[in-house]
Amino acid sequence: MRSNEWLEQRFQLVLRRHFYDVNLVNPVDVSYGIRARRRLGSIALVDGRSIIRVNRLLAEDTVPTFVVDATIGHEMAHYTHGFGSTLPRKYRHAHRGAVVDTEMDNRGMHDIRLQANAWVKESWGTFYIDECGDLSAKKQRRDSLRKLCWERWLAQCDRRSIEEIEERQAVIMRQLKSTTAPAYRIDWLVAGPRHTALSYFYDSEGVLRFHGLLADRRISDSVVDFEVAYWQVRQVVGADWSRIRTFMLHHGLESTLVEAIAWRQRVWNVFRKRNVDEVFQIAEQC
Ligand SMILES: [Zn+2]
Q: I need a surface site. Which of 100, 214, 239, 247 has the fewest CB within 10 A?
C-alpha cells in the first residue's frame, strides 16, 4: 500500500519532470480521496489552495506507477489552464478539444498518458471488482431492497398498472393516427433518489420505463398520457422538442400537453421527494 508520503513524492517528481516551468501561484495539496468507480483524480480550488485528490484505489501496489503519474499530470494540466487554480483561465471548457491531453503531450507525458489509458481500458474493470467487491455487494443489496420496496408499493390496492398504461397508449396511438408500432415495451422504473424524470427510455433494451410514482392515482391521467404520447411522437418526428410539440398540438393533445407540463413544473419535484421516501419507508417497517 502506498502512503501519503509516497504520493507526495510522486507529485514532486511529476512537477520536476513535466511542470517545472509552471508558476505555482497558489499552494497545491495532494492526497488520496475516496475509492471511486470511474474518476481517477480531481482538482478543486478551496480557500486559495488547489486540492488534488487521487482515487484511493491508486494506492494499491498493483496499479502501475504510470497510472498515478498520468493522473497527477492530468490534474496539473488543469492547474496550468486555470481550472482549480488561481492562474488565468486559458480555455472556456476544462476538457473540450482534448486540451488536457495536448498539454500533457507537450510536456513529455505522451507515452505515460497512453500507457495509463491502455491499462485502465484493459485492467481497471477487473481490478475494481477485486478491490471493491464489498462496495459492489453493498450496491447489489441496496438495489434489490429498492426493487422490493417498489414491488410492495406497486402492489398496494388501486395503483395504476402497466396494462392500464398500455390501454392508454392504444387510445393515444389512434388519436395520433400513428401507424408506427411502438418499438419498445413499457415497464416500471426501479427509481432511486436520482431519478428525477417521469420516464426513461432504454434504447438498448427497448424499454420505456415509467417512474413508479406514476402508479399513484393522485397523478392525473393527462400526465401519464403525455409521457406515452411524447415517446410515441418522438419515435415518429425525432427528438426535437418543437417538432414533437407541434405534432401533438396538431393531433388535438393541447390540453393534455398544457396540463402535464404545468403539473410537472409546479408539483412533480415536491411530490416526488415526499413520496419516494414513503415508498422506501414501507419496506423498512416490514
Ligand atoms: Zn479532467
A: 239
